[in-house]
Structure formats: C-alpha cells, structure tokens
Amino acid sequence: MSLTPLRLGYVPLTDAAPLIVAQELGFAAEEGLHLDLIRVQSWAQSRDLLGMGGIDAAHMLVPLPIAQTLGLGPDYPRFDLVMMLSVGGQAIAVSAALANAMRAQGHGFGFDDPVAARTALAGVADGPLRVGVPFPFSTQAELVRRWLDGTDLGARVTIHTVPPPLMADALAAGEVDAFCVGEPWASYAVETGVGALLLAGRAIWASPPEKGLVLTRDFTEARPDETGRLMRAVWRACRWLDRPDNRGTAAEILSRPDYLNLPPELTERGLLGRLHVSAAGEVRQFPGFIRFHDGSVNFPWRSLAALLARRIAGQHGLDVARAMEQATECFRTDLYRQHLRSAGADLPGASARIEGAMAHPTAVASEKGQMILAPDAFFDGETFDPAFTLR
C-alpha cells in the first residue's frame, strides 16, 4: 500500500514522543501515512515553517497558536490546534551558584513545594532574576509568572527566550540565572553540573498544557481526511505512551541519534517521573510528571485557550474579553470530536469547563457515560470560569 507522506516539525524534547512513536511503531502506517519528521531548533523556526508551508503540521507550544490568532506574530494562515499532545514535563532549574546558596540557607530541594522554593530563592537572589523560557508565548512563561507574580521576586524577574537544547549552555554562561524548560533539557543541565532542579511545573499547576498538534486552517479545511488520519495516529501513540510498561521503550526510541541524541537513562528520567535534582544524584519521585493521554489530556478545552489568552492579551495591551473569545476559535474541539470519535476517544459533554477547579480526579459527563478528568488545580487556589459553554 502506498503511504501518504506528511511533513511534521518537532523540537527535540521528550514531549515530541507522540509524533515519533506514531511513525516508529506503525500507528501512522495503519492510517496510510508516512510521517517525515523534521527536527527544528527553536519555536520561531517551527512557527515559520508551518506558516510558510515548509511543514504540514507541528508539535507546538500550546500558547503559540493563540498568539498567532491574536495577531502577535507574522502574517501567516490561521493556525488550528486540533489536539493536545502532553501535560506537564516542565521543570524549573537554578544555577549552581544559586543552588549552593539556597542549600546553605537550609533549602532541601524537595521539588514539589512552590511556596518553599520561591521563599528560598528570594532569600538568595539579589537584584534582577533572569529566567530563561523557550518562547515568550509558552506554558513555561505562564508557569514562571504565576509562581512569582505579586511578590518582590516577581517584580525583579526578567524573561529571556532560549531554545530548549541551549538552556544548559545559557545557564553555564551566566546569561540566565534560572530557567523553566521541558525535559530532557532540565535534566541535561543537572547532568552537566551547571544547575539544580528546583521545582516541577506540575507543582505550580497540576495540569499545565505543554504541546499541541497544530496545522494551518488551510490544511484542515482542504485536507480533512488526512487531518483525521494524522490525529488518529497521534492519539493512538499518546495512548500507548501512557501505558507504564512502555515508557522504557519510549526512552530508547526518543534517545536515538535522529531524535534527542542523548543517553536513554537521561531521557527516561522525565518519562518515569524519577528526577535527579542535583549532580550529586539526589532523586525525587514525581509520579505523572508528564502525561500524554490519561486524564483526558488530549482534548483541547476552549476554556483553556481563553485562560492563556487572558495573560497574553494583558501583556500586549489587547482587549482581554475579545482576545479570550478569539482564542477559542483556534482550539478545534469540533475536529477532535469529528475525527477521534471513531478511534474510541471518549468525549466530554461540553467543550469548556472551570479551569483550576479540580484538586482530585473528577468524573464528568461524556458520550460514553462518564470520563475521569485529572486534577488541574493551581497552587495559589485560583479558578477561572470563562462564563461560556461551547460544544
């Protein structure tokens, strides 16, 4: 059978796993597709390749298509986020110098207490604090702002864009004092001795959306069959990845020279939720550090688009209410329902929810009766009600 080729861009990160696994384990071939996986080095490059037609789809930061929809980027065709690929997987790291100073003050690097970590960091960080994130429109930027906003440290923080594979180099060179990035690049900084892991992203926000599968509106409208086939292949790969016995195999695949080009042991840390927080080998267990499917990871909630748009609009002087409404238009719950129902995906009864309201796994109405949503609470207790329900 002849396979239809599709060009997919990815940044070398652990959370590119759904695209890589879809191709390597045959989920794409089952849908009649061959995925030509194109490694890119930055999110600006990923955005530009997608916008200019150099790739057909992208593994992309969840806030990036929102920013495009709000006009905060080049004049490209509209972007559609058709499904989520992952939740979590981010870590905040600090330089070796800051880590040593925090240890001297008694901080134990528990990796799971945002308030204790913030207090300890504030106690040793004099003057401006330069924090690296992979892109201005990223969940990492949202996590850092949420963690530090309203504090003296938050008033002193400056955000700097650093491509994920270069985070450790930036920390070593003194270009940033800390960073928030997806695995395995936080662990790489520990392995090379230039930093220590301070906090998991999921300690700040229980379900921080990390990557989505993004195509242009032109593609989803002109090529609906291929859109559906790609979504089903990637969805099945996400489901496979969240079977615990498969994580070791996934680490081996991702670590190959064509992909992350790192030792499997390093890639495995984030996948297994067994993080080394220092070069001395201190290990912290964080179950569910990254999820690809379980807990309804893959559904692109429109309320989530509104939540992320709120901060982006506020920072760029846009009308916040209008921006939240516009942002929902690029989270294609309609395509998710249309194309993944046949694959066996359970579908919630609504396309919006109150964000941050669940401290525990929660059952909600679905097409199959009930589905379990994972906790999504914020450490500061905020909830966000978009005041609309969209199907």
Mean pLDDT: 96
Question: In DSSP terms, counting alpha (H) and pi (I) runs of 4 or more, how many helices?
Answer: 18
Instruction: Kindly report the spatial arrangement of strands forming the biggest sheet.
Output: 2-1-3-10-4-13
> What profile does the largest beta sheet have?
6 strands, mixed
SS-based class: alpha/beta
Rg, nearest Å = 20 Å
Question: Count of DSSP E strands?
Answer: 15
Q: Approximately what portion of the residues adopt beta-strand conformation?
A: 15-25%
The end-to-end distance, rounded to whole angstroms, is: 37 Å
Helix content: 25-40%
Contiguous runs where pLDDT drops below 50 for at least 5 residues = none
Please state the overall shape, judged from the principal axes of the Cα atoms.
globular
Pfam family, one: NMT1_2
Main location: membrane
Keywords: Cell inner membrane, Cell membrane, Membrane, Transport
Subcellular location: Endomembrane system
Concise overview:
This protein has 391 residues and is α/β, with parallel strands linked by helices. It has helices at 17-24, 27-30, 43-51, 63-69, 96-104, 114-124, 139-148, 152-156, 167-172, 185-191, 201-204, 217-222, 224-241, 247-254, 264-272, 302-315, 320-327, 333-340; strands spanning 4-10, 33-39, 57-61, 79-88, 90-95, 129-133, 157-161, 178-182, 195-200, 209-216, 274-276, 283-285, 290-291, 362-366, 369-373. It contains 18 helices and 15 strands.
Description:
- The chain has 391 residues and is an alpha/beta fold.
- The chain has helices spanning 17-24, 27-30, 43-51, 63-69, 96-104, 114-124, 139-148, 152-156, 167-172, 185-191, 201-204, 217-222, 224-241, 247-254, 264-272, 302-315, 320-327, 333-340, and strands at 4-10, 33-39, 57-61, 79-88, 90-95, 129-133, 157-161, 178-182, 195-200, 209-216, 274-276, 283-285, 290-291, 362-366, 369-373.
- The strands form 4 sheets. The protein has a 6-stranded mixed sheet with strand order 2-1-3-10-4-13, sandwiched between helices.
- Strand 14 and strand 15 form a beta hairpin.
- The longest helix is centred in the middle third of the chain and has 18 residues, at 224-241.
- The radius of gyration is 20 Å and the shape is globular.
- It starts with a strand and ends in an 18-residue tail after the last strand.
- The model has no long low-confidence stretch (mean pLDDT 96).
- InterPro entries: NrtA/CpmA_ABC-bd_dom.
- This is ABC transporter substrate-binding protein.
